C-alpha cells in the first residue's frame, strides 16, 4: 500500500487552500531518497525528535536559572507546549499539522545554556541570535557537522519564529505566535509558583480579557487567532487581543523577567559563558574535533560549541578549567 499517497489525498481533500502540502515542499539542500511511509515533513519532525540537540533541551534554562523544584519549565517543556498550541491552531485552520509540529519542535534548538542570559553573554563579543543558531544547528552542527538536511519550509519556519522574521508558510507564522502564547502563559504560571508575583498582582484588565486561570488564558488566545484567521491567507489576532498580549508581555518584563528573585544568579551565568567564550577562542584545540576547522572564524565555531552545551555541562566544563584538581601519587 502506498501510505504517502493516502496522506496526499487527505491533504488535497481537507486542508485549506492556503496550507503548505507535503507534495509542494521546495525540498532539501541535499537530495534524499523518499521514505515509503512518511511524508517529508513527517521525516523532518522525526529527525528533530531523535536528535541530540532536542534531548539537550531538557537541561537548558527557560526563565528560572537552576530552579529548585520539579515543576518549573525547561527549554524542552516550553518546546512541547509551543508544539501543542501550534498544532491546535493549525488543525482548526486546516493547515499542515506535521509541518507545524516540525517547526515548533525545532525552533529553539540553538539556545545557549541558561537561555537568553547566555545569548546576551555571547552578544558582547559577536552577533548571536538563537533563532539563527537554531537554523545553524539543524543545517551544520547536528550529526557531527553533517546537519539534519531538513526541508526548506521547516528551516524557514525555525529561523523566522521570532523578531522581525516572517515565515514563508502560514504554519511557520502559527509557530511564531504560539511561541509567544506559550512563554507568556507558562512564565506567569512559573512566576506564581515561585512567589515572584501573586494572582492578585495581575492587573484586572488582563484577567477580564484573557481569563483568570492558565487554561482560560491559553484557550482564549487560541480561540481569538482561529476566529480572526479562519479562511484567510494570514494568521491574525483581533486588535484587542494583540494589544492586550503586548501589554501583558510588557508587564512580564517589568515584573518577572527582570525580577531580582528570578534573575539572582544570572550575572554568574553570564560571567561563566563569557569566560568559556574567551577561553576557547584562545584554546580552540580543546574543543571537540568537529569545531576545529578553518571554514568559519573562531568566533563562530566557539559559539557553535557553546550552543551545544546544557546548563550542567557548561558548569562542569567551567569547573574543570578553573578549579584545581587534587594531585595524588600512588
Give a nutshell description of this structure:
The chain is mainly α and 330 residues long. It is 58% helix and 0% strand. The protein has a single domain, classed as Hypothetical protein af1432.
Description:
There is one protein chain. This protein has 330 residues and is mainly α. The chain has one domain (37-321): Hypothetical protein af1432 (Orthogonal Bundle). 58% of the residues lie in helices and 0% in strands. The chain contains 15 helices and no strands. It has helices spanning 3-14, 40-49, 52-56, 75-92, 97-106, 115-123, 130-145, 152-159, 170-193, 204-210, 214-229, 239-257, 266-282, 298-307, 311-322. α5 crosses α9 (170-193) and α6 crosses α13 (266-282). The radius of gyration is 21 Å and the shape is flat. The termini are far apart. The mean pLDDT is 94.
Amino acid at each position: 500500500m502506498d501510505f504517502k499517497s493516502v496522506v496526499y489525498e487527505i491533504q488535497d481533500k481537507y486542508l485549506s487552500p492556503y496550507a503548505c502540502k507535503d507534495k509542494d515542499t521546495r525540498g532539501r539542500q541535499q537530495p534524499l531518497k523518499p521514505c515509503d511511509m512518511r511524508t517529508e515533513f513527517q521525516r523532518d519532525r522525526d529527525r528533530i525528535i531523535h536528535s541530540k540537540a532536542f534531548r539537550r533541551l531538557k537541561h537548558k534554562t527557560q526563565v528560572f536559572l537552576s530552579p529548585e523544584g520539579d515543576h518549573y519549565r525547561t527549554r524542552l517543556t516550553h518546546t512541547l507546549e509551543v508544539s501543542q498550541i501550534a498544532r491546535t491552531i493549525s488543525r482548526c485552520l486546516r493547515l499542515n499539522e506535521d509541518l507545524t509540529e516540525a517547526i515548533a519542535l525545532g525552533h529553539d534548538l540553538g539556545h545557549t545554556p541558561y537561555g537568553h542570559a547566555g545569548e546576551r553573554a555571547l552578544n558582547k563579543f559577536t552577533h548571536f541570535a538563537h533563532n539563527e543558531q537554531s537554523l545553524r544547528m539543524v543545517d551544520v552542527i547536528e550529526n557531527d557537522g553533517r546537519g539534519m538536511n531538513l526541508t526548506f519550509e521547516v528551516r524557514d519556519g525555525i529561523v523566522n519564529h521570532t523578531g522581525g522574521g516572517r515565515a514563508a508558510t502560514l504554519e511557520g507564522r502559527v509557530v511564531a505566535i504560539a511561541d509567544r502564547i506559550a512563554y507568556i502563559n507558562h512564565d506567569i504560571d512559573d512566576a506564581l509558583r515561585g512567589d515572584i508575583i501573586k494572582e492578585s498582582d495581575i492587573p484586572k484588565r488582563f484577567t477580564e480579557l484573557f481569563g483568570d486561570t492558565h487554561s482560560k488564558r491559553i484557550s482564549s488566545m487560541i480561540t481569538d487567532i482561529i476566529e480572526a484567521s479562519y479562511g484567510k491567507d494570514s494568521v491574525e489576532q483581533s486588535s484587542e487581543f494583540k494589544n492586550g498580549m503586548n501589554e501583558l508581555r510588557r508587564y512580564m518584563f517589568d515584573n518577572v523577567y527582570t525580577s531580582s528573585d528570578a534573575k539572582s544568579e544570572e550575572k554568574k551565568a553570564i560571567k561563566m559563558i563569557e569566560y568559556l567564550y574567551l577561553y576557547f577562542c584562545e584554546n580552540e584545540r580543546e574543543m571537540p574535533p568537529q569545531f576545529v576547522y578553518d571554514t568559519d572564524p573562531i568566533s563562530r565555531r566557539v559559539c557553535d560549541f557553546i550552543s551545544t552545551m546544557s546548563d550542567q555541562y557548561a558548569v562542569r566544563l567551567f569547573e574543570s578549567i578553573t578549579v584545581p584538581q587534587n594531585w595524588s601519587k600512588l
